[in-house]
Amino acid sequence: MTGSDAGEVRFGFPVLIGDIGGTNARFSIIHDQTSEAGEPRIVQTADFASVDDAIRATVLDGAAQPLRSAILAVAAPVEGDEIPLTNCPWIIRPKRMLAGLGLSDVLLLNDFEAQALAVAALGMEHMEKIGGGAPVPGAARVVLGPGTGLGVAGLVHAFGGWVPVPGEGGHVDLGPRTPRDNEVFPHLVTLDGRVSGEDILCGRGLVNLYRAIALADGHKPALTAPSDITAAGLAGSDATAVETLETFTTLLGRVAGDVALIFKARGGVYLSGGIAQKIVPALKAGNFRAAFEDKAPHHALMGSIPVYVVGHPLAALAGLAAYARTPSGFGVETAGRRWQG
């Protein structure tokens, strides 16, 4: 691989891998280059003052031998020596982790960079297909994940390996298109006067959309939790929740189709995270796929691109584990994101 001498990257074992999101942090240990990741430890970020405290309490106290390296995926752009998480009060300080946790090597990746690695590492037994044709081998792929926020990343094949392309695609503009959209969108809570993908296509976005639909119809919102809205929408027990879920999947299809066009992702579009896994029936109802393909003049191209829901419960950890064992198989940029003691 080229780029930051990717073929020369090595990590000392045992390696701590971690997927740190806005709500939950997931950790596991890889003991050597041939072993699978160990039993995952999953914690709520709100239960700990810092990532260092979480690692000490859930990993270090029970580790059979000292950890040497850490590869952590974080829900934030990785810039500088202090990285504040986007949807969590934690601030990641790699230099402090080296000194305080006894590590000799810390690498930070974007959380959806790890999801992109997972798409390259996981087999099709972990995928639920939502229409389209067969993926083109070696073609670009994209991954989107509505969760605490909306993560977006690309994955391109070059120089003999897979290169993840992190970004902030969840913050693209999302505007009204139908007469019903024009009734609902004025009631959405926005950031700085615009509607971004993340204002709708995430957990809090579901609540935002449900509230806007209720207000558009002159009703007081009855549900306030994303899980209650998806459950009621799937069960058909609340008309506003049913419309919310249908609108959510339509808008997710629009954004997924836009990102697929940007990357010409003939290798497939992959929806990750708990929300996508829970709403598979709604995604298969037809409106998601129709919105995804409604990209004139490229209907034929979009119709051929497969969409999958990633069913693996810990996909990011699987991607990080694959990279930790064989970094030469991936074009991961380490410059400015790796700290060594």
UniProtKB/TrEMBL annotation:
Q: Which leading EC class covers this enzyme?
A: transferase
A GO cellular component entry from the record: cytosol
Q: Which GO terms describe its biological process?
A: glycolytic process
Localization in the cell: Cytoplasm
Report the EC number(s), separated by commas if there are several.
Answer: 2.7.1.2
Residues binding ATP:
G18, D19, I20, G21, G22, T23
Q: Is-annotated flag, keyword Kinase? A: yes
By what name is this protein known? Glucokinase
Originating species: Aquamicrobium defluvii
Instruction: Give me the gene this protein comes from.
Output: glk
